[in-house]
Design brief:
- 2 copies of one chain form a homodimer.
- Chain A contains 10 helices and 9 strands.
- By secondary structure, chain A is an alpha/beta fold.
- The first copy, chain A, has one domain: ComB-like (putative 2-phosphosulfolactate phosphatase, Alpha-Beta Complex).
- In chain A, the strands form 3 sheets. A 4-stranded mixed beta sheet of chain A has the order 2-5-3-4, sandwiched between helices. In chain A, strands 6-1-7 form a 3-stranded parallel beta sheet, sandwiched between helices. In chain A, strands 8-9 form a two-stranded antiparallel ribbon.
- The two termini of chain A are 27 Å apart.
- At the A-B interface, helix 7 of A face helix 7 of B.
Chain lengths: 228, 228
């Protein structure tokens, strides 16, 4: 729904909690030089070759053909990723990021529970309009991205005015879920909870719902996400 | 977001709580022969003349030029509307209704708190897939339509499987708000609460959030909403 908002001078937060933006924060936290988001497997392979980067991405829950790694944050330990460049293909997150670029966003960052505080601190410090862009899946809102948006709103709202009911909705749902985000996702049988559990990825889900375990701010500049 | 869902054989509930669908239920409850929704003031005037109907609709909170009545349910008492035809122009609700028609919806009904039970009873009896279509405003979701969707989901969910996180989100927010919907709308300073309060319409808001005070089921057939 990014087209509904004026992005000039705005800070756009790209949110794709399960698992793209959680993995981006983790890779950068563990020392990756940068993360380059691309929108197709072909571009990922090509760019990976050119710059000797680590190529990663999944389609339907499997490492995409021709790529080396998947979307799990646990694949990007410091031992592995430190000082390397990660070329990551994601569908929705990258699409949203490019949309934000085209529409003239002032600054673009990525957000997830693992870097919740870094995002909130940045938004408060910038003091510019904020658009929280939930990547969704096939254009449907999902619970975890709304929970993250709600967490951000809850923390920063005293510094901003809210002009969209969806922000109120997100905060309400977050406050209900706050005590145990994983239990809430499970109780609601959230679509991505369901899908990832089917792949045996409970550990990933729990990690991606944990605040501040990879607390850096990925900022998009010249095609790359770097730590601010 | 209606385009995301398969509407074949589905029952689509058009929701525009403040105030179109609340007013439709009220007019029919009070004996209107039918309500004909149209998407422009010009069509409303023309059709009103042809069939000697009561023309109604607002733009920017005022009765639209050339029409006789507004969007308030309180304008449609039994004394006034009994046995008459109401030609109502609304923007978002009518647009959504036409979209549902074009996409082959099985049946189309309108929903609002004043006819909550009638909607729920119908959905359970039909036992077909259900799409709850929130009319929104300029494409943004609003709190009251989500609350109504949540109320419906809460009441009918044991008869259906839920396959969309937005349904879980709607029910969560509804359960938080349930005890006092008006207070919740006020506390969240919901966009339409804010706008209608600016026109002095607290009474309308309170009425439109009251369950079952006009408990009929408006069903769309051949261009008209009639009581099933």
């Amino acid at each position: 729904m990014l087209h509904l908002y004026d992005l000039n001078h705005a800070v756009v937060v790209i949110i794709d909690v399960l698992r793209a933006t959680s993995t981006i924060a983790t890779a950068l936290y563990n020392g990756a030089k940068c993360v380059i988001p691309v929108d197709s497997v072909a571009k990922c392979i090509e760019l990976g070759r050119q710059i000797d980067g680590i190529t990663a991405g999944e389609r339907d829950g499997m490492i995409a053909e021709g790529l080396e790694h998947g979307n799990s944050p646990f694949e990007y330990s410091r031992d592995f990723i430190n000082n390397r460049t990660l070329v990551l293909t994601t569908t929705n997150g990258t699409k949203l990021l490019h949309m934000a670029l085209e529409r003239g966003a002032g600054q673009i960052v990525t957000g997830s529970f693992p870097n919740l505080s870094a995002v909130c601190d940045f938004l408060i410090a910038q003091n510019q309009p904020v658009v929280l862009g939930c990547a969704a899946w096939k254009d449907r809102i999902n619970l975890e991205d709304m929970l993250f948006a709600g967490a951000v709103i809850h923390r920063v709202k005293n510094h901003f005015s809210i002009n969209c009911d969806s922000a109120q909705i997100a905060e309400s749902v977050y406050l209900e879920a706050e005590k145990d985000l994983y239990a809430f996702m499970k109780a609601k049988d959230a679509s991505h909870y369901h899908r990832l559990m089917g792949f045996g990825l409970e550990k990933d889900i729990r990690y991606c719902l944990t605040p501040d375990v990879a607390n850096v701010l990925p900022l998009y500049e010249n095609g790359k996400l770097i730590v601010l």
